[in-house]
Amino acid sequence: MQRTEAMKISFRLPVPAAISLLLILGVLLECCEGIIGGKEVPPYGRRYMVLIKGLEVCAGALINDNWVLTAAHCDLKGEPQVILGAHTASHKEKLEQVFSIQRAISYPCYDPQTFEGDLQLLQLKGKATITKAVGILPLPRTGEDVKPHTKCHVAGWGSTKKDSCKTSNTLREVNVTVIDRRVCNDAKHYNLKPVIENSMICAGGRKGEDDSCQGDSGSPLICNNIFRGVTSFGKCGNSQKPGIYILLTNKYLSWIKKTIAGAI
């Protein structure tokens, strides 16, 4: 999920001064990146999952043989690798397919302040080969809403503890439940900062113990076996700030299809 900008401050200050500055800026060192709770996915159990390794770790979904859908806020500076068929993040595996990015196209109305339209398409340099380790996640046929209390799941690579920066070496998955937007927007939760729009899904575990986190940005949210959302933001494992996912509405689905069709 989205990192707070304060996390990028250089620590050239003396340690006490640096700590004080972080506290003033309100940085909560409560999580780093990855699935909070959940369990390890069996090897190649989620063949559509994509590992994006650049300046930071993100995830995505393979939606056809040379396009990946991820989050717009993922930092793609440098020369990030797009890895298909990964189970272990730390080393190359025999069935992996590694690609560079030909084009990265963010949703044209993406707003980094409100997170509206936090979607990005990555065109690969080359085409994926469909194997027992690599598969395609179909887009939903319609962009219908997901009702509160719906059971969903999300996967990613990263920490298994909200207070640890140590990443998991394997793909993990967690179950989450959709929460009514009115609850997510109330004073005990996001308090309209930002507003959880109708184009977003709010979901988490009981007491916040199950959640997605920063390293899972771009991961697909699967509800009733249908691809419904893309991981955007939240505070890892915090029940007052559940995970927020961009709902694949008809508007977004139309943009995805038109973008892909125009580039082929």
TrEMBL record:
Q: Which Gene3D superfamilies match?
A: Trypsin-like serine proteases (2.40.10.10)
**Signal peptide, first to last residue:** 1-34
Q: Name one GO biological process term.
A: proteolysis
Q: So which domain of life are we looking at? A: Eukaryota
Print the keywords alphabetically: Disulfide bond, Hydrolase, Protease, Serine protease, Signal, Zymogen
TM ranges: none
Cite the Pfam families for this sequence. Trypsin
Q: Which GO terms describe its molecular function?
A: serine-type endopeptidase activity
Which InterPro entries does the entry link to?
Peptidase_S1_PA, Peptidase_S1_PA_chymotrypsin, Peptidase_S1A, Trypsin_dom, TRYPSIN_HIS, TRYPSIN_SER
In this chain the Peptidase S1 domain maps to 35-261
> PROSITE patterns from the entry?
TRYPSIN_DOM, TRYPSIN_HIS, TRYPSIN_SER
What protein name is recorded for this chain? Peptidase S1 domain-containing protein
What organism, scientifically named, is this protein from?
Answer: Oryctolagus cuniculus
Organism placement in taxonomy: Eukaryota, Metazoa, Chordata, Craniata, Vertebrata
